[in-house]
């Protein structure tokens, strides 16, 4: 059976974070492995607290797991600290891990920062060069590229800038762009821009970024190309959004 590893934060609602990742891996028939990189106390309206996990313990989790099982693909989500990212960079090189998908998580959908100061710089400089795909949304892509993103032209420009940091493929998710009835995911492999278009669904949904990148990770584990995986992941997310559940008092949770 193919395996995928998520290195991410815990979200007790299961809408985002490593719980969502494992559900998505399972949906695609890929066996889910997980290393916890941070803990959050949260519900569908707020993140009330974050507990950092020391980088040494994250390294222990990874070393122990990877000495036994070699994942077919790896995804990172909320890593929270600079030390964790530096440790991870060492581990990924040391174990020569392939099919790395980086979701550069910055803030929760309810507006709380999910990273320490300086995280974006080390993420960009140390982890992006090791990655197959990065999947920033427009806010994350703005912060990482240092430019405002208001339309598809800006998405292209930002994707070009982010490609320079070394990922094989940049996918900027456009679900948060203002206006219009369509969504666009901008995929750039250094040569060609692919635009994956879809229909916008009204409302606020928790965990769409996590589920999208987890779907790509699962499909890469199964041997799909990045563009095929991205198209399939997008279809999956549209479906999950349509079927989202209002279980709590706040944001709707994807039904994955
Ligand atoms: O959606 C980004 C995200 C990632 N990881 C964890 C989260 C969230 C959003 O709340 O809680 C653990």
How does this structure look, described?
The protein is of the alpha/beta class and 256 residues long. It has one domain: Ribokinase (UDP-N-acetylmuramoyl-L-alanine:D-glutamate ligase, 3-Layer(aba) Sandwich). 38% of the residues lie in helices and 23% in strands. The protein has 8 helices and 11 strands. The protein has helices at residues 17-27, 55-66, 82-94, 119-127, 138-145, 152-163, 208-221, 226-242, and strands at 3-10, 31-42, 47-52, 73-76, 100-102, 133-134, 169-173, 182-188, 193-199, 205-206, 252-253. It has a 9-stranded mixed beta sheet with strand order 3-2-1-4-5-6-7-8-9, with helices on both faces. Strands 10-11 form a two-stranded parallel sheet. α3 runs parallel beside α4, α5 (138-145) packs across α6 and α7 (208-221) packs across α8 (226-242). The longest helix has 17 residues, at 226-242. The protein is globular, with a radius of gyration of 17 Å. It starts with a strand and ends with a strand. The model has no long low-confidence stretch (mean pLDDT 96). The structure holds 3-hydroxy-5-(hydroxymethyl)-2-methylisonicotinaldehyde.
């Amino acid at each position: 059976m193919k395996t995928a590893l998520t290195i991410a934060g815990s979200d007790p609602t299961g809408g985002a974070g490593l719980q969502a990742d494992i559900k998505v891996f399972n949906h695609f028939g890929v066996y889910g492995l997980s290393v916890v990189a941070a803990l959050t106390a949260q519900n569908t309206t707020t993140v009330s607290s974050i507990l950092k996990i020391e980088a040494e313990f994250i390294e222990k989790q990874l070393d122990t797991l990877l000495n036994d099982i070699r994942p077919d693909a790896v995804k990172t989500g909320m890593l929270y600290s600079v030390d964790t990212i530096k440790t991870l960079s060492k581990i990924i090189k040391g174990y020569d891990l392939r099919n790395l998908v980086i979701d550069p998580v910055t803030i929760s959908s309810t507006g709380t920062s999910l990273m320490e100061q300086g995280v974006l710089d080390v993420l960009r400089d140390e982890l992006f060069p090791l990655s197959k795909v990065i999947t920033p949304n427009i806010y994350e892509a703005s912060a990482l590229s240092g430019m405002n993103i208001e339309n598809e032209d800006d998405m292209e420009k930002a994707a070009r800038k982010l490609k320079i940091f070394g990922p094989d493929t940049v996918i900027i998710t456009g679900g948060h762009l203002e206006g219009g009835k369509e969504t666009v995911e901008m995929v750039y492999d250094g040569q060609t821009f692919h635009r994956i278009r879809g229909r916008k669904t009204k409302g606020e949904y928790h965990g769409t970024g996590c589920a999208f990148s987890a779907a790509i990770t699962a499909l890469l584990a199964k041997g799909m190309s990045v563009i095929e995986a991205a198209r399939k992941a997008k279809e999956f997310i549209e479906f999950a959004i349509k079927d989202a559940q209002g279980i709590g008092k706040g944001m709707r949770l994807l039904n994955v």
